[in-house]
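Why do we care about 3D structure at all? Because function follows from shape, and shape follows, mostly, from sequence. That is the central idea of this module. The next example makes it concrete: a single protein chain, its amino acid sequence, and then its structure expressed as tokens.
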Amino acid sequence: MAQMTMVQAITDALRVELARDEKVLVFGEDVGVNGGVFRATDGLQKEFGEHRVFDTPLAESGIGGLAVGLSINGFRPVAEIQFFGFVFETFDAIASQAARMRYRSGGRYHSPITFRSPFGGGVKTPELHADSLEGLFLQTPGVKVVIPSNPYDAKGLLISSIRDNDPVIFLEHMKLYRSFRQEVPEGEYTIPLGKANVVREGTDVTIVTYGAMVHTSLKAAEEIEKMRGAKVEVIDLRTINPLDMDTVIESVKKTNRAIVVQEAQKSAGVAAEVMAQINERAILHLEAPVLRVTAPDTVYPFAQAEDIWLPDVQRVVDKLVQVLDF
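And the structure:
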């Protein structure tokens, strides 16, 4: 196995699928010669040619429309939205077209599209680059949303996403691109979509989270164990649509306490949905209310205020103390 950063694992997954299936096409703004703004597609055009890996105009609406058209003609497009804050320009193609294709055509057509996009805070980007907009797609039936937290998962989940016959939004947290390395198998392997991962076993409280907040939560779990001796179980959702609530409920029934951590704003997000389902399915197992750690309900701030806006380890520790002391 090779030691890879997350962006290297993503490139490797794209290489595996381009080599395996000639119907896989990779396109977006600057993904060809330049290899993408974060170099996630570096070298792929040279290896597979400009008909398989190519640049598009600076028009997300065009990228979305092209992806839908190619998908119903037998291709498996991997379309990059350069930053997820620009998803509004292609929202119609995703939600009104790709997500409804199988239903609308009575199963005659499907849209096996993977929409890749960087997102997430902590790297001091300009406005509209760091926004966590994944909650918009929780009410979009027909679309899967995948958010890996590490290189191993990123490669296996991206390969699964490309092979899936439904549209998948694959979100890549910018802070995780090159923040650490991990052993990643060479060649192909898959991780099933819609299956969470218990990344830390515990008995006293459950943290449910995803993306970069997995690492924040793991640090908080270590801190609370030093402070209180409490054993915290940390669940990485990996896929936030569909949610693997069976894994979450099993954990809550064991620990009897839970908090949910997300980077996105508080209202109507993943955390709210997870909390609602825990209450519906496991309320009699709870010894404290389910709490959440989120960003505030404001527009994503300019870089100067980013560090105080984003959830951090101390805020997670404070919520753990609150549920333990209830």
